[in-house]
Amino acid sequence: MRSSLPIPDYIDRIAPYVPGKPIEALEREYGITDSIKLASNENPLGPSPKAMQAIGQALAKLHRYPDGAGFELVRALAGRLGVGKEQIVLGNGSDDLLGMLARVLLQPGDEVIVPDPSFLMYTIVAQSAGAVIRKVPLKDLSIDLPGMRAWVGPRTRLLFICQPNNPTGTAISRRDFETFLSDLPPHVVVVMDEAYFEFVRHAGCASGLSYPDRRPAVVTLRTFSKAYGLAGLRVGYGVMGAPLAELLNRVRMPFNVNTLAQVAALAALDDTEFLERTLSTVHQGLDFFQAELSRRGVRWFPSQANFFLIDVAQPADEVFERLLRRGVIVRSMRAYGYPHCIRVSVGLPDENRRFLQSLDAVCRTKG
Ligand SMILES: *Cc1c(COP(=O)(O)O)cnc(C)c1O
């Protein structure tokens, strides 16, 4: 649908982001109850209990504006990560930081390199700034760093890496990342989106946090939405060189991270018991799924995140739809270029078993 307003063509061309189906929407539309959602890589344990407690105590302060600088949270993060406070920018989710990076760094006609398939927001924020997108296909489900390097030219401003990659769950090695960085011109900013980094089990995976002051600039994005269970509150942050952080803070909305989000994130950061329980739930769930699927002869792909891909060997949209009717929400990967794959987030043990039973029923696999 073309807009009748005099807007830029590059805005008109943006394809809207399609989020995972909310449980309430499924139940409303299908008239069912007792559904489970394994579609948005959320924390199956719920929010950090310490975060919930902190929110309760902060409710009486809601008539005040938030601390626009997020002083306590920034200080805690800087201490935890061993970087300067002036190197951290808070966001309304890490999505907010993607938008700030695009506003600061991109002009119409600039080029942005993205892996494909990967997180769709990279393309959306770059298109909103009128940038030209260069999509570099994954190789064996992994981000192809030499392939991305080959597209770098004088107008390249931003290059996105999703570590581990959503939706494939693969992660790049420190060695490959360093080789890649050593050959990159200084006018390119590399964004390492580490939304799932806490879940990584493989030793030797690259993190942008090892290069906070490097040129070319490496920006690391992290979030409280996944491992800390606070997706509904919207808190993320970026770590980068202080000069770039200062520019991002100029375009940041002053109260982008609300009061409850700030106190909850601060408390969640100290909730090591919850983080450990989250990681063991996810890792045991992945191992359980993979053993069960292998036993059934169903193809799956190893993952460093809290989700993974399953090759259902038939049209994924149909499997998705049949699972929905049984109250199980996953993601079809057709729109991501894998027409026979679904992406499944690891849930609680009961949810994982329910998913497998439903898969057996809709795909006639043998449990
Ligand atoms: C979930 C996710 C995010 C996090 O988004 P928030 O805005 O922090 O909730 C960022 N990047 C990727 C790849 C994700 O999957």
Please provide a brief summary of the model:
This protein is α/β, with parallel strands linked by helices and 367 residues long.
Structure description:
The protein has 367 residues and is of the alpha/beta class. 38% of the residues lie in helices and 15% in strands. It is built from 13 helices and 13 strands. The chain has helices spanning 9-12, 23-30, 49-58, 71-81, 94-105, 121-128, 145-150, 174-182, 242-251, 259-269, 272-296, 316-325, 349-363, and strands at residues 36-37, 88-91, 111-116, 132-137, 156-162, 189-193, 218-223, 236-239, 299-300, 307-311, 328-329, 331-332, 341-345. The model has no long low-confidence stretch (mean pLDDT 95). The protein binds pyridoxal-5'-phosphate. Pyridoxal-5'-phosphate binds next to helix 5.
Strand content: 15-25%
List SSEs in N-to-C order: HHEHHEHEHEHEHEEEHHHEEHEEEH
Number of strands: 13
Discrete helix count:
13
Mean pLDDT: 95
* End-to-end CA span: 46 Å
Q: What overall geometry do the principal axes of the alpha carbons give?
A: globular
Helix content: 25-40%
